[in-house]
Amino acid sequence: MRAQALDGSAASLLDTVRRLGFLQIDPISTVAPPQYLVPFSRLGSYDRAELDRLLWDEQRLFEWNAFVYPIEHLPFVRAIMRRRRTGKYAWERRGTEFLKANPRFRRYILRELEREGPLLSRELLDHSTRTWEPDSRWWGSRNVSVMLELLHGRGEVAVVGRRDGQRVWGLAEGWYPEVPKVPLAEARRQLDDARRRAQGVWLERGELRAHPDAEDGPVPDRVTVLSPFDRLVYDRDRAEALWGFRYRLEMYVPKAKREYGYYVLPLLHGDSVVGRVEPVFDRKTRELRVLGAWGDTSRLDEALADLARWLGADTILGWTSRRGRSTKGRSRTRQPAR
Asked: What pairs with residue 168 in β-bridges?
């Protein structure tokens, strides 16, 4: 909890990202996208616009490969970008084949970004030569996006902004600051150490191991919800080993086979994961609906009140507070957290 900044010690959004090492980006916003919900679990009600400011105005964070990193990690990520050009894995070799088959298309993309400045992918034309069947799952249906992803992964173009949630692309040169060149092995060592330091404790060959910098001690008696992408529970085996909490994200499970729900959030109380809840935020009606709650929900009303305040919800529906606060509907507390 302390390593993950879930002990109430997170001072700011920037401090939180630095301590965690990264935020995972995902468009699913049943409640809020994980890049926003993960910091909420640590900071409480913060201004989500701050993430954009740190990314696009101050550039103290950067986006790469669907993750947000602190700028201090750029030398290590740059090493990974360079390695991707060697084609070690099959999917990288497919990308290399595509680039070799489309040199004019690549030059067109880079020339347009240099000439016109930052652009959305739909503002670029498709001049590619197909090397896969159009319906290939890896290929997709829009080769401009494939080219941009390849050039992004290899460090030639960068995400330099967002427009209505869509990535804005620009040349990496001039966007990324100059950083020292770090060997790949050292970059991986640094990133692995940062990941384990942020975990505090991890599972290795069936045994729990602690990082040398991990600090033991009491954790404040606070309650909050966690994103399904939160690193505290992302390693499902570790979560089960630490708390006896078996968790999986069931949005890709057929509805009839779900044990809990589509997008269920773990419930954190102090130093334990004690339950789970399925909230849905309706942005049009400003309603936070609770479709179900399981496990120890004795303080769920506090967590929901904090979440509603941060989201700007006017009403909480579907949850009957055990403390007598006025909400509508009834809870579906059916079984323990395990």
From this structure: 161
